[in-house]
Structure formats: C-alpha cells, structure tokens
C-alpha cells in the first residue's frame, strides 16, 4: 500500500534512516530554494512541460490545481515556517555544542582543582 510520500512499504523498509543533515538540507531548500521552474508551469505549453518535467526543480511546490476554466493554481511551502524550523534545529545544535564545551571545561577545572588540593596535602 503506498504511503503519502509515494513509496510503498518495500521502498520504506529499504530506505536509509533520515539524518539530521537530511532534514536541515530539505528545510534549507524550502526556505531558500528557487521557484523559477515552478513558474514555468504557468506559462509553458503542456507538451514542453511534459518534455522538461524530469529536469524541473519542483521541490518547493506543496500543491498544484488545474482550474475548470483552464487556469493553474500553484501553492508553495511556507518559507517562513521552514526558516523557523531550520533556526530551531540549528539553534538546538549550537546550544548542545556550547553545553558540551562548558561541561568539558567545568570537568577540567574540577580535575585541576583536585590535583592542586592533592599536591598541597602531600
């Protein structure tokens, strides 16, 4: 049975685990990605679009609707939400790095302090 990402159960079981890097790369593409190819969908003929489709970058599109009157509606993922999520993820990583550094510094200071105390008592 296909899932909402267009992959069947077999595809998902063979798919590698999604890393933090994959997530930040995807959010970066949503936040800063180019929509030029998406706009081509509005102005090119259907034949040209079908021919160029494999090369088009349509990553930022969340939805495409063909109107009954002949128009096309394209909705994009929210860039601000992508930026906010990207900021949350990278901010969390920076905090973890800073805390790890601080913990290591604190442990080193504690060890030095113990050595000096041991040297005084010897």
Describe the structure.
With 122 residues, the chain is mainly α. It has helices spanning 9-14, 20-32, 36-43, 46-52, 79-121; strands spanning 61-66, 72-76. Strands 1-2 form a two-stranded antiparallel ribbon. A hairpin with a 5-residue loop joins strand 1 (61-66) and strand 2 (72-76). Helix 2 crosses helix 5. The protein is rod-shaped. The chain starts with 8 loop residues before the first helix and ends with a helix. The model is unreliable at 1-6 (pLDDT under 50).
The number of distinct β-strands equals: 2
Sequence stretches where pLDDT stays below 50 over 5 or more residues: 1-6
Q: Can you list the strand order of the major beta sheet?
A: 1-2
The helicity comes to 55-70%
Radius of gyration: 25 Å
Biggest sheet record: 2 strands, antiparallel
Q: Which keywords apply here?
A:
mainly alpha; single chain; 122 residues; disordered N terminus; two-stranded antiparallel sheet
Write the layout of secondary structure elements.
Blueprint: H1 9-14, H2 20-32, H3 36-43, H4 46-52, E1 61-66, E2 72-76, H5 79-121
Antiparallel strand pairs: 1-2
Helix pairs in contact: 2-5
Provide a short characterization of the protein structure.
Helix content is 63%, strand content 9%.
